[in-house]
Amino acid sequence: MIPRTLFDSDLEGFRDTCRKFLEKEAVPFHAQWEKDGQVSRELWTKAGEMGFLCPTAPEAYGGLGCDFRYSTVVMEEIARAGCSGIGWPLHSDIIMPYILNWGTEEQKQNYIPKLISAEMIGAIAMTEPGTGSDLQNIKTTAIKNGDHYVLNGSKTFITNGQMADVVIVVAKTDPSKGAAGISLFLIEDGMEGFSKGSNLDKVGMKAQDTSELFFDNVKVPAENLMGGKEGTGFMALMQELPQERLLVALTAIAACEAAIEWTKDYIKERKAFGKSISKFQNTRFKMAEIITETNALRVYTDRCLELHLDKKLTIPTAAGLKQITTDLQCKVMDECVQLHGGYGYMTEYPIARAWADSRVQKIYAGTNEIMKEIVARAELG
């Protein structure tokens, strides 16, 4: 593996602390959380106490004021541990930045400290049953009525949906304006008319609470309009998506590296026809291929991380990165399952769960087909 140059001793110390925390507080319980359909609230609280939530939040709001490399460490260690149910990255690196970058000062003061401590768990509700990646055609509306808005609609596939205390909801405040009529709202659990559907039964990521959300004439105070201004929602979505797609890519490569390590251990121990299967040419060639491809995309992903730290990661570059890394993730998982043989299909083996978990990576944060279209539009017009 080519040495990484982005992480100094302080960051590696943070990584070691995070890894030990997950090994003690998450790994032994994750199988039960998969049966429960969500991780424990206690884990969130402990993570807040350890500084693992929202590490990039400014000190002015009670945060550590770290750069995005600290968030990277957390999400890489979650992937390495195979703890796909832990929804911290979305909470810390999607929800918190939306509020920080697009919220009013009052909204920042109110919500960011609570996200840091896990007093509140965050979610974002973009996708609707009939729209998928087509955000411009969402049907959820928020119509102004005096000092409040009336919110109606439904959302689906919402990560952290069951546990969320605050949800950023994408809605149309002026349906006649298309994308220019989209706004964001901060909706709190317990608001009258806001309800959560059942925890969705997914192929993978069984410990991640993913839900439908319903809004039936929810009376939303005007001060819960993100940034206090209508029509800025689509712009916010477009500007925040590169970090979200980088997050997905970083998780994908860390998951590939973990799967390769599990498979190395397995093929050295497993014997067939009187010798370790690591000695068979097919095994060696398959491993060489996925190791080399993962190493190559690790370097590319780290370069994109550098660009992001310098605020130079463009929308097309992030889209292409998300597409190529998640395609590789699915390939690596499939090859590693095959090398495990029948045991690779047994959920007691981490590779089986990682294989099922990986498939959604090509779908959320924008499908890989949409990612290709973004790149093509930028390069070809």
Looking at the structure, what is the overall shape? globular
Put simply, the count of helices is 11
The separation of the N and C termini measures 37 Å
Largest sheet: 4 strands, antiparallel
Structural class: alpha+beta
How many strand segments? Answer: 9
Run of helices and strands:
HHHHHHEEEEEEEHEEHHHH
Mean pLDDT: 96
Give the proportion of residues in helices.
40-55%
Based on CA atoms alone, the radius of gyration comes out at: 21 Å
Major β-sheet strand ordering: 2-3-7-6
Give the uncertain stretches in residue-range form.
none
List the defining traits of the structure above:
381 residues; alpha+beta; four-stranded antiparallel β-sheet; 9 strands; 50% helix
Write a structural description.
The structure is a single chain. The protein has 381 residues and is an alpha+beta fold. 50% of the residues lie in helices and 15% in strands. It is built from eleven helices and nine strands. The strands form three sheets. The protein has a four-stranded antiparallel beta sheet with strand order 2-3-7-6, with no helix packed on it. The protein has a three-stranded mixed beta sheet with strand order 1-4-5, covered by helices on one side. Helix 9 runs antiparallel to helix 11. The longest helix is centred in the middle third of the chain and has 37 residues. The two termini are 37 Å apart. The mean pLDDT is 96.
